[in-house]
Amino acid sequence: MENQEQQTIPRVLIFPLAAQGHVNSMLKLAELLALAGLHVTFLNTDHIHNRLIRHTDIQTRFSKYPGFLFRTISDGLEEDHPRTGDRFMEVVYSLNDKTKPILREMLVSGKLGSADTPLVTYIISDGIFGGFTIDVAEELGIPIIHFRTVAACCFLSYFFFPDLIESGELPIRGKEDMDRLIKSVPGMEGFLRCRDLPGFCRVSDATDPCFRMIPQVTNQSRRARALILNTFEGLEGPIVSRITKFCPKIYTLGPLHAHLNARLANNTNGSTSQSSNCLYDVDRSCLTWLDSQPLKSVIYVSFGSITVFTKHDLMEIWYGLVNSKQRFLWVIRPDLVEGEGGDDMVPVELVEATRERGYMAGYVPQEEVLAHRAVGGFLTHSGWNSTLESIVAGVPMICWPYFADQNINSRFVSEVWKFGLDMKDVCDRKVVEKMVNDLMVERREDFEKSTAEMAKLAKNSVSEGGSSYSNLERLIEDIRFTAK
Ligand code: UDP
């Protein structure tokens, strides 16, 4: 009898791209579904899974959810293959090229299920995988939906890459052309410049493989049964409405980290323990340092998990921070700077000023850092998770986008939502110094006001009756219904 009941519990396969931001948000969704009593299989690449095991307690943490499984698949690359900076897209190409037969075999053979719930009844696939997960799901008759981890504004723009070519707006004609306004992305006509288009558009001709891949992959989401976006009505409602022209059924569930925290708090009468999904060892000593800093006096500096720096840019940021005279907490990942070395002499004035009012950490618990009372600003690469985490914490931003969706996110942060400043395409110590002082002092009140208002909307959206909350209920119902 008990076994019969188990078999009617749906098993959802969640398959993210092998990158910190994708894994973070899709693991939050996985936990939300597990909290609702669904059985979940989380499929990571071996490379990512090994790093998660090394740096976190995820296996113990998720063992409390009945039927929760971690499974792994190869990304097709050698273990020591570089996976950051401009080599990151090779991971995407490799997974898209090689994974389809392996995924099919894992589904057919029951490797993605447990003894109680052996069959996958629903798939939530990272939309960046395009058609191959949909092909497999269709062949095996399993309902599948796509999860896009980028902002709605970015995802909408992807649908219009072909129009940009047809209208002659792309390719971009050199540096002097970067400030030209773009007309072919609806709703963004007045403010989106060439430089704000997703980084994939910065190519000299339209046959570039990466540029061509984006609309192909994006169009595949139209074949999925529905689309999940990590955003919320109050932030991107009108843009989400425009996407329904291509993908009529959309669940906005974000901000997922806040959504999970809210549901965990409900389940435990208010107490939540911050949990890490980090791919690096987390240095918590920065929180002790923050404890001793004045209210909103620190600018937190972090460029996510993929950005790499030239030594020149690193020095410009460093000088800018030091010359601003503001306090700063800076994440220096072990693989942050490109090229060999580390033996260069750092000027003594930088070392002394950093000792006086700065703190450098290898990798930090970012959600906790942003929520700390001492943090008053965020110098960020504008990755979508970081942007949402900053919004929820009510922390204004300086954006220094590195690639991909970050270019358009930073334009929306500065021009549309007014949460801060955009430092795109510039890395100059004087500009850094000025922007840090504008954010932390001169224009602080304005930015804080708009960010605080949006933080409130974000929290409402994940509270009972809010849009993201209700959408999650709908998704869970749909998953249960299809398993019957
Ligand atoms: N992150 C973290 N500690 C750090 C740096 C980053 O926990 O020191 C997390 C951050 O909270 C976010 C994710 O890593 O959830 C980065 O995702 P994002 O989309 O912002 O950027 P990506 O790394 O994908 O470029």
How would you explain this protein's 3D organization?
The strands form 2 sheets. This protein has a 7-stranded parallel β-sheet with strand order 3-2-1-4-5-6-7. The protein is an alpha/beta fold. It has helices at residues 2-8, 20-35, 46-55, 58-62, 88-98, 100-108, 132-140, 152-158, 161-166, 209-220, 233-243, 256-267, 285-291, 311-324, 348-357, 366-371, 384-393, 406-416, 429-442, 444-461, 467-483; strands spanning 11-15, 39-45, 69-73, 122-126, 144-148, 227-229, 250-252, 298-302, 327-331, 358-361, 375-380, 397-399, 420-422. The chain is built from 21 helices and 13 strands. The chain binds uridine-5'-diphosphate. This is 7-deoxyloganetic acid glucosyltransferase. InterPro entries: UDP_glucos_trans (IPR002213). GO terms for molecular function: 7-deoxyloganetic acid glucosyltransferase activity; quercetin 3-O-glucosyltransferase activity; quercetin 7-O-glucosyltransferase activity.
Strands side by side in the biggest sheet: 3-2-1-4-5-6-7
* Rg, nearest Å: 22 Å
SS field, number of helical segments: 21
Could you report the average pLDDT, rounded to the nearest whole number? 93
- How many strands appear in the DSSP assignment? 13
Percent of residues in helices: 40-55%
What amount of the residues lies in strands? 5-15%
Distance between the termini: 17 Å
